[in-house]
Amino acid sequence: MTQDKDERKRSHLRLVVNNPEMRGGRPAKGDEAGIPFEVLVEKRDELRVDFYRGIAPWHTKAYQGIERHLGRRGWLYGLDPQHGRLMVLPAAAVCPEVLEHGGSPQDELLLFVADDPTGLGLCLCLEMILPFWSDDDAVMEEALIYAPIYPYGALFLEENKTDGYLDLIYRLSFPLYPPALTERLLEKLFAVARYELRETLMGLDEIPEA
User: Fold this and answer.
1) Which pLDDT tens digit goes with each residue over 66-80?
2) What is the mean pLDDT of the chain?
3) How many CB atoms lie within 10 A of CB 67?
4) CATH tag for 23-205 (out of 3.50.50.60, 3.30.1460.70, 1.10.1200.10, 3.90.79.10)
5) Distant-in-sequence, close-in-space partners of 109: CB < 8 Å, separation ≥ 6
């Protein structure tokens, strides 16, 4: 993956995290404002007003159901109304194995509700930038090609607008028919995410160093 995984570990620059470190020693070329996770948690009640303002009743009901579920689990989470109504969680809360495979406590997982492709229901989406990095695009493309294929989640590459590097991203989407969220569905969502993330990270560990 890299000549020295520890020294060249990728410091992620996410939508919501104000991370001053730069990847590969190259200056960041973007200027997206970030919001530290701690601030999103601390000001969650204050941000909730903007988070729910102007969204459809279906979306409101789904987000409120997720908030209740996260509260019952005792997971810290933040609400980010500035970057697409995102719920932000520590990735290790959902998949503790992240910390064993190159991740850190700062790694995050994004949860959001979107319209499904038919426009007749909702889709519950979970997304994470994986802790796998190379400044060689070919290595990132190879990781995508040889990564496992799963029945629920999917991997894709996307250029990080902040620094120009490729991100390897995991996304899990569950359609809701009808658009009603249940505890059982949320339990399954997080169970599937943990399994697929764990398997993906184990597979990425086996990719030989460049």
Assistant:
1) 999 999 999 999 999
2) 82
3) 16
4) 3.30.1460.70
5) 88, 89, 90, 91, 93, 94, 95, 126, 127, 128, 193
